[in-house]
Input
Amino acid sequence: MSEINEQSTVAAWVRAMPIRAGIFENLGIDYCCGGKKPLADVCARKGLDVKTVVSMLKALDAVSDSEGIDVEQLSLRELCDHIERQHHDWLRQELPRLDFMTEKVARVHGDSEPRLVEIRKVFESFGPDLVEHTVEEESSVFPLIRKLESNPGEAKIIAENLRSAIQKLEAEHDQAGSALERFSELTDRYQPPEWACNTFRALYDTLERLERNMHQHVHKENNILFPAALAMAANR
Output
């Protein structure tokens, strides 16, 4: 791999050292759906000094994923399993809570903070779409990827189905990314007002954790799993 520098993509920085994702999160830089853009370009658009950002990124020690797992070293099957455990299971647990909280907080406090009603409207599309997305991954796309690794003789047939499926998933990732950006905007980067009740505060905290989990989730798929699967299909 060539040396990482200012012209390297945001995704490349995270792939080289996953803990860097935390810095990008704090700076409001999208490293998953927007991960294919050069760091210098992203910093320029956000009014950030790229040299300062690079210094911050390079100051981190070489550690791996939040679970202590180097996802780059996992097989395709192992990476699919990891994504299901680390991200899909989290969504299955938290999306119903978010459905409840977005409805309750909007109903109780929407008159005082109208943006809560908009958060609810965004979630009403985002939540069901994301559930459908993860079901498709687990029932269709991930089985194809696992089969590709275990049955190289069927690579050509699998590749034809996989390419179109991955294009669809990446488009859905972009839509999810737009919703996450909207949540961030509507919540002032997840900063509740002083008068917010505990449920209100829990909603903002969970939305922030949703953003972090989704960014890691989509990064592992868009920038690691999907390219590796397509490359394997092309080489067999």
